[in-house]
Automatic annotation (TrEMBL), chain A:
Record's protein name: Proteasome subunit alpha type
Broad class of where this protein is predominantly found: cytoplasm
Provenance organism: Gossypium darwinii (Darwin's cotton)
Compartments (UniProt record): Cytoplasm; Nucleus
PROSITE patterns per UniProt: PROTEASOME_ALPHA_1 (PS00388), PROTEASOME_ALPHA_2 (PS51475)
UniProt KW keywords: Cytoplasm, Nucleus, Proteasome
From TrEMBL, chain B:
One GO cellular component term: cytoplasm
UniProt xrefs under InterPro entries: Ntn_hydrolases_N, Proteasome_alpha, Proteasome_beta4, Proteasome_bsu_CS, Proteasome_sua/b, Proteasome_suB-type
Subunit structure: Component of the 20S core complex of the 26S proteasome. The 26S proteasome is composed of a core protease (CP), known as the 20S proteasome, capped at one or both ends by the 19S regulatory particle (RP/PA700). The 20S proteasome core is composed of 28 subunits that are arranged in four stacked rings, resulting in a barrel-shaped structure. The two end rings are each formed by seven alpha subunits, and the two central rings are each formed by seven beta subunits. The catalytic chamber with the active sites is on the inside of the barrel.
Lineage, broadest ranks: Eukaryota, Viridiplantae, Streptophyta, Embryophyta, Tracheophyta
Signal peptide annotation: none
Gene3D superfamilies found in the cross-reference section: Glutamine Phosphoribosylpyrophosphate, subunit 1, domain 1
Family membership: Belongs to the peptidase T1B family.
Biological processes, Gene Ontology terms: proteolysis involved in protein catabolic process
Protein's job: Non-catalytic component of the proteasome.
Protein name: Proteasome subunit beta
């Protein structure tokens, strides 16, 4: 973006009171592929766009299970994300060993944020270049948090990060008031539709996206490709009819990946239900 | 020159550690704690005695204390180690409260924390010389567990330490049932404590009963049990005993 004389290291303030290195780290998050999260009172769904570099390679893992009740989706430098996931898993395991109880998400998120903050105040370190959407269950219900490289964290009803996330955010902003009471399947459907928004015209297929769910009575798990594709298909049908979110598919653990096969630009307006 | 009395045998493998102070034997001890689950929560009873060997030296020792909002801890064994444990737990609860989020450590978490502490101390050959009873209620779930000085831990509907295991548990196994009323629970505990009073030399006739429910913890003022010594079996107790007088 801008070349400044105050951006050489993270421990230098600019005259305007900014830490440019931290802001550049947040840029790295914006360059990563889109990741979205949304929650109801009892479930949280994470989804991301997973494009492989070439047809020959597999795609990068962007969603990690941290514990039965916590999962995280990342955007940005996936290597940094992997390291932070390992830290989170460690913290969860240690807490569980001492207290035989799951680590409350809220506390894990604060620990993560404190860890990120350290990197903004040491001259020999750099901020983590990854944004994390942390989904988890607590005593107080389902939670979705966003941890950024600055060391800040926020709780959200729904959020999207990464490239072209604004399109998803717009979609989520229109619908978020209904999320709290959504059923699990509706939530997954909304996630898939939000992912579709970031693809801007491209066909939504289960091979280019990943969806994961955690909820009351449902440990965190990533939905398999087949299930996702079935949900996408269900939505295509529903999308054409402009009907409400009914899933004709028999399979119970379907993810709602709302994509339609046809070109998005032509004629099919975003669902305003 | 080292004046501390460390009784290390010559073939001791502890090496440089052998000079440090480790718990070798307890000095001021409390006797049994008995506890059971009842309809609304947990009832726990312990007398107020602190023995110094065979002398019944201290008679106002509170051996049951509340921990946080949801738990109650009773201890038998070395009283100073119990006080040390209370300090550890105080710090634990303090840090838990400092998070100031909607979460709090319940009885299960405290019990497991204590198990880790006791077991790790035992592994260093420097045990906290206590048998602990941890009971509580959180979100309607009743919890009652115990940890010993060597780290043995388990949960049950009724637990006891020390002599209580031998004298009170059999009574509880016969007479405990789910959803005891408060009055029945107290009567049952008093029955156990009375037997202990008759038969345990380190028991004194001054006890407290503590109750913990979802609402909170209350502990009764000290009181004493009625005893009856006119049983005919108590007259000439050694009549039929071989080799006694």
């Amino acid at each position: 973006m801008f070349r400044n004389q105050y951006d050489t290291d993270v421990t230098t303030w600019s005259p305007a009171g900014r830490l440019f290195q931290v802001e550049y780290a947040m840029e790295a998050v914006k360059q990563g592929s889109a990741t979205i999260g949304l929650r109801s009172k009892t479930h949280v769904v994470l989804g991301c766009v997973n494009k492989a570099n070439s047809e020959l390679s597999s795609h990068q893992k962007k969603i990690f299970k941290v514990d039965d009740h916590i999962g995280v989706a990342i955007a940005g430098l996936t290597a940094d994300g992997r390291v932070l996931s390992r830290y989170m898993r460690n913290e969860c395991i240690n807490y569980n060993f001492t207290y035989e109880s799951p680590l409350p998400v809220g506390r894990l998120v604060v620990q993560l944020a404190d860890k990120a903050q350290v990197c903004t105040q040491r001259s020999w370190k750099r901020p983590y270049g990854v944004g994390l959407l942390v989904a988890g269950l607590d005593e107080s219900g389902a939670h979705l948090y966003y941890n950024c490289p600055s060391g800040n964290y926020f709780e959200y009803q729904a959020f999207a990060i990464g490239s072209r996330s604004q399109a998803a955010k717009t979609y989520l902003e229109r619908r978020f008031e209904n999320f709290a009471d959504s059923s699990r399947d509706d939530l997954v459907k909304d996630a898939l539709m939000a992912i579709r928004e970031t693809l801007q015209g491209e066909t939504l297929k289960s091979s280019i996206c990943t969806v994961a769910v955690v909820g009351v009575g449902e440990p965190f798990h990533i939905l398999d490709q087949e299930t996702v594709q079935q949900m996408i298909n269900a939505f295509e049908i529903v999308g054409e009819q402009e009907g409400p979110a009914a899933e004709p598919d028999a399979a119970a653990g379907q993810e709602a990946a709302a994509e339609q096969g046809g070109s998005t630009d032509e004629g099919v307006a975003p669902m305003d239900i | 020159m080292n004046f501390t009395a460390s009784k290390q045998p010559e073939n001791c493998l502890l090496g440089p550690e052998s000079d440090s102070q480790r718990t070798l034997y307890p000095y001021v001890t409390g006797t049994s704690v008995v506890a059971l689950k009842y309809k609304d929560g947990i009832l726990m009873a312990a007398d107020m005695g602190g023995s110094y060997g065979s002398t019944l030296r201290y008679k106002s020792v509170e051996r049951m204390k509340p921990i946080g909002k949801h738990s109650l801890l009773g201890a038998s064994g070395e009283i100073s180690d119990f006080q040390e444990i209370l300090k550890y737990l105080d710090e634990l609860i303090l840090y838990d409260n400092m998070w100031d989020d909607g979460n709090s450590l319940g009885p299960k978490e405290v019990h497991n924390y204590l198990t880790r502490v006791m077991y790790n101390r035992r592994n260093k050959f420097n045990p906290l010389w206590n048998s602990l009873v941890l009971g509580g209620v959180k979100k309607g779930e009743k919890y009652l567990g115990t940890v010993s000085m060597i780290g043995v831990n388990f949960e049950d509907n009724h637990v006891a330490t020390g002599f209580g295991n031998h004298l009170a548990r059999p009574i509880l196994r016969q007479e405990w049932h789910e959803n005891l009323s408060f009055e029945d629970g107290v009567k049952l505990l008093e029955k156990c404590m009375r037997v202990l009073l008759y038969r345990d030399r380190s028991a004194i006739n001054k006890l407290q009963i503590a109750k913990i429910t979802e609402e909170g913890m209350t502990i009764s003022p000290p009181y004493s049990l009625k005893t009856y010594w006119e049983f005919s079996a108590f007259e000439n107790p050694t009549q039929g005993a071989v080799g006694s007088w």
